[in-house]
Amino acid sequence: MGLEPFSADDPIFSHESVLRDTYTPDDLVERDRELQEYQNALKPVIKGEDPKNIFLYGQTGVGKSIATEMILDRLDQDQQQYDYLDIKSLNILCKGLNSSYQVSVKLVNEFRPPGEKIPPTGYSPDAVLEMLWTHLTELDATHVLIVLDEIDSIGGNDDILYQLPRANSNGNVPPEETKIGVIGISNDFTFRDNLDARVKDSLAEEEIHFPPYDAPQLENILRQRAKKAFEDDVLSNDVIPLTAAFSGQESGSARQALKLLYKAGDLARSRDETTVVEDHVREAEPLVEAGKVEDELASLPTQSHLTLHAVLRLSEEDELPVKSNVIYQQYQQAAEAIDADVKTDRTIRDRLSQLSLKGFLDVDERNKGSQGGSYYLYDLDIREDVVRDILEDDDRMAPLYGSETRTLGSF
Ligand SMILES: Nc1ncnc2c1ncn2[C@@H]1O[C@H](COP(=O)(O)OP(=O)(O)OP(=O)(O)O)[C@@H](O)[C@H]1O
Ligand SMILES: [Mg+2]
C-alpha cells in the first residue's frame, strides 16, 4: 500500500501536548498540604529575612519539580508589592552533573554571558567556588534562591551541599549583600539517607516529603488534564479510573499515569477508532512499563553506567553469572578508557546492589561451604540489546562504543 498522505484530522485528541511532561498545568491538584508546607518554609524570604534551606524528596513523578516551578513563579509575582525585596531564583537541573565541582561550574556559568563561560575542567575547586561567591555577592538582589533539582546525581561528592547553604554564615557571601537559600530536590531515598550529617543539618532545615499518589488522587489529576487534551466524549467512562488504578498500584507517579493515558489514546487513534476504551489502556500498560525501564536506565549516573557496561561485556562473552571482583576488573578498564574516576571495589559493590534493587541485575547468594560465609553471583536481568542501546546513547560512554574502540578490539 505504501505511504498514506499525512492528515491533521484527529478524532481523539484536541490538544495532545497537554498530556506531555513539558506541559505546565494551571493548578496542582491533590498537593495542598505539600504546597502549604512549601510556602510556609519560604515565609521568611517574603518578610525580607534569611531564607531557610529546604530539602524536597519523594519518588519520581510526584510533582516535586512542577510544585517548585509554580511556587517560585508565585513568589516572583507576590514580591512585587514589597519594595524592600528583590528575590531572584536559579533553577539548576543536576542530572548528568556527577560532582560538586560540575555543579559549581554550572552555577558560575549561569551568571556569565556567552563568551565568558568557564570550561568544565581546568580550575581548582576552590577557584570555582571563589568565582561563585563573587557572582553571588555582586548579584543585584536581596535574596537568591538556588534550586538544585535531581541533586542525587552528584552521589557522595556532596561538598557543594555543605558550602552553599553556609555561604552566608561562613562569610563567603555577606548576607547584607545577598541572602542565599538552597532548595535541594531528590527522588533517591538512599541519597537522602546517606547525606553527611553536617550536610543534612544545613541543607534540610525544612524537609518536605511528597508521597506517591493513590488511585483516587491520580484520577483527579488525569481528569484535569484529559478535559483539555481529548475531544469531547472520546473517553469511555472506565478509562480514567483504570489508568489511575494501574499507575496507583505500580508507581503512584502522575508522570506514569499521564503517559499511560496518552499511549491509550494514541493506540485508539492509530487504529482510526473514535473512542478510547479499557482495552486500549490494558494494551498500553506493558508498552509504557518497558519505556519506564529504559528511562530509568538512561537516567543512571556515569558510574552506574560503567558498572552496567562491565556486566554487559561479561554477558556478551557468556561469562555470567560472576562474582563482583570479576565485574570490578572490567569496570576498572572501562573507567580508565573514558577517563572517569576509578572508584573502589567497595563502591562498585554498592552500585551492583543498587542495580539489583532496581531490578536490572539478578543476584544470587551462595555459601562458601566449610569455611562459612557467603558470596554473591551477579547476572543481567534485562535484555542485552536494551542495555546496549542506552549505553550507546550516553555521550560519556562514547569511547567504549564508538568505532575507534571497535577497531582496537575489546579490552
Ligand atoms: N498534582 C499534580 N497535578 C497535576 N499534574 C501533576 C501533579 N503532580 C505531577 N503532575 C505532572 O506529572 C509530571 C511529573 O511531575 P514532576 O516533573 O513535578 O515530578 P517530580 O516529582 O519532579 O519527578 P522526578 O523525581 O522524576 O523529577 C508532570 O507532567 C506534572 O505536570
Ligand atoms: Mg523532577
UniProtKB/TrEMBL annotation:
<dbReference type="InterPro" id="IPR027417">
    <property type="entry name" value="P-loop_NTPase"/>
</dbReference>
<dbReference type="InterPro" id="IPR055237">
    <property type="entry name" value="Cdc6_lid"/>
</dbReference>
<feature type="binding site">
    <location>
        <begin position="62"/>
        <end position="66"/>
    </location>
    <ligand>
        <name>ATP</name>
    </ligand>
</feature>
<dbReference type="Pfam" id="PF13401">
    <property type="entry name" value="AAA_22"/>
</dbReference>
<dbReference type="InterPro" id="IPR050311">
    <property type="entry name" value="ORC1/CDC6"/>
</dbReference>
<dbReference type="GO" id="GO:0016887">
    <property type="term" value="F:ATP hydrolysis activity"/>
</dbReference>
<keyword id="KW-0547">Nucleotide-binding</keyword>
<dbReference type="InterPro" id="IPR036388">
    <property type="entry name" value="WH-like_DNA-bd_sf"/>
</dbReference>
<keyword id="KW-0235">DNA replication</keyword>
<dbReference type="InterPro" id="IPR014277">
    <property type="entry name" value="Orc1/Cdc6_arc"/>
</dbReference>
<feature type="domain" description="Cdc6 C-terminal">
    <location>
        <begin position="308"/>
        <end position="391"/>
    </location>
</feature>
<dbReference type="InterPro" id="IPR015163">
    <property type="entry name" value="Cdc6_C"/>
</dbReference>
<comment type="similarity">
    <text>Belongs to the CDC6/cdc18 family.</text>
</comment>
<feature type="binding site">
    <location>
        <position position="225"/>
    </location>
    <ligand>
        <name>ATP</name>
    </ligand>
</feature>
<dbReference type="Pfam" id="PF22703">
    <property type="entry name" value="Cdc6_lid"/>
</dbReference>
<feature type="domain" description="AAA+ ATPase">
    <location>
        <begin position="50"/>
        <end position="214"/>
    </location>
</feature>
<dbReference type="InterPro" id="IPR049945">
    <property type="entry name" value="AAA_22"/>
</dbReference>
<dbReference type="Pfam" id="PF09079">
    <property type="entry name" value="WHD_Cdc6"/>
</dbReference>
<keyword id="KW-0067">ATP-binding</keyword>
<dbReference type="InterPro" id="IPR036390">
    <property type="entry name" value="WH_DNA-bd_sf"/>
</dbReference>
<protein>
    <recommendedName>
        <fullName>ORC1-type DNA replication protein</fullName>
    </recommendedName>
</protein>
<dbReference type="GO" id="GO:0006260">
    <property type="term" value="P:DNA replication"/>
</dbReference>
<dbReference type="GO" id="GO:0005524">
    <property type="term" value="F:ATP binding"/>
</dbReference>
<feature type="binding site">
    <location>
        <position position="213"/>
    </location>
    <ligand>
        <name>ATP</name>
    </ligand>
</feature>
<dbReference type="InterPro" id="IPR003593">
    <property type="entry name" value="AAA+_ATPase"/>
</dbReference>
<comment type="function">
    <text>Involved in regulation of DNA replication.</text>
</comment>
